Amino acid sequence: MWYIVQPGDSLYIISQKFGVTIAQIKSANQLTDNIIYVGQRLYIPLGVQAPIVYTVKPGDTLYLIARRFDTTVDSLMALNNLTGTLLRVGQQLTIPLYTEAVVNVNTANIRSGPGTNFSILTRMTNGAKLPVIGFSNNWYRVRLFNGKEGWISGNIVTRNVYSGRRPITGVLGFYTLEEGPSLPSSFTSFANNTGQLSSTGLFMFRISANNPTTIEKFGDFTDQDVRNLVAIAHRNNVKIMPVVHNLLYRPGGTTLAKNVVKTLVSDPRNRNAFALNLVNLIERYGFDGVNIDIEDVFIEDSDNLSLLYTDIAEVLRPRGYFFSASVPSRVSDEPFNPFSDPFNYSVIGRAVMNLW
């Protein structure tokens, strides 16, 4: 969850408040020292989440408590069954960790502000789940699939407020094309389960072996097929991105895959050209970002591989595009593992928004 630093706070006080370590807070927020400032927004890595109970202190108001814990007065009142805004010192309040607005009409307009006089940004379908980040006059400020914000009327949604008694997590689903009678396309599963997803990656694009600065289609599909998937995702508030990988070259196998990466990462001009081609891919189909799934790499290309992720981030981040990476997991320090050792998780983790 997110927390706003208050006067008198220190990393020690915050760590004790949430039951996490100072090191965990510093790592989650990439802090190099213990200095924090009032108003700073810190991510608290709760791990196994549990309800947070706050005891009201002199001077507290619902607004101040909501601001401190990055929630809304509306959510605080709903979760604690409050009928008014008056508080008493010593009163205990359960803090909302997550609030969502679920569309309960066939089609719902998402607007640029809290009222029907504001312009329509996009439309959502019945069942779309929208993370709530604000509330004003029966309008919810919500987070959209592309990371931007919008507003939706409280009259056309069902509000759900969660305390953390059950796990709260995002769900990523990977989408694949048909690979034979026993491996059908993901389309039916995807279309029927958008309400369970927060993001999806289309395993449908690959780094070209002929020119590793470019991206080729992986499988048999049309541009309209992709745009249909993007439309389904967006009207259900699901983030959607291409998975760009270096896998399954035939002929050539893993040796060719490693050489493709070597050519791509060894020259800064190649890395930059590839990053710009990712932008072209995103904008061609209306994706929200990209997932890079590089798996076969020569160990001597490790440093240049890290530079690739950094270079991609420098191109995507100013444009507001989401950037994530799928990397091989390291299961032990010994013996030497040529599959995972080329990946510097620390550097890659700083470059991307999510590491899978």
Give a structural overview.
The protein is of the alpha/beta class and 356 residues long. The chain has 3 domains: 2-95, LysM domain (Membrane-bound Lytic Murein Transglycosylase D, Chain A, Roll), CATH 3.10.350; 99-162, SH3 Domains (SH3 type barrels, Roll); 172-355, Glycosidases (TIM Barrel). It contains 10 helices and 18 strands. The chain has helices spanning 11-18, 22-29, 62-68, 73-79, 187-192, 223-235, 253-265, 268-285, 302-316, 345-351; strands spanning 2-4, 41-43, 52-55, 92-95, 98-103, 107-111, 120-125, 129-136, 139-143, 149-153, 157-162, 172-175, 199-207, 215-217, 239-245, 289-293, 322-325, 354-355. Strands 12, 13, 14, 15, 16, 17 and 18 form a 7-stranded mixed beta sheet that branches. A 5-stranded antiparallel beta sheet has the order 10-9-8-5-11, with helices on one face. Strand 13 and strand 14 (215-217) form a beta hairpin. Helix 7 (253-265) packs across helix 9 (302-316), helix 8 packs across helix 9 (302-316) and helix 9 (302-316) packs parallel to helix 10 (345-351). It is globular, with a radius of gyration of 23 Å. The relative contact order is 0.08. Residues 1-44, 52-95 form the LysM domain. Residues 98-161 form the SH3b domain. GO terms for molecular function: hydrolase activity, hydrolyzing O-glycosyl compounds; lytic endotransglycosylase activity.
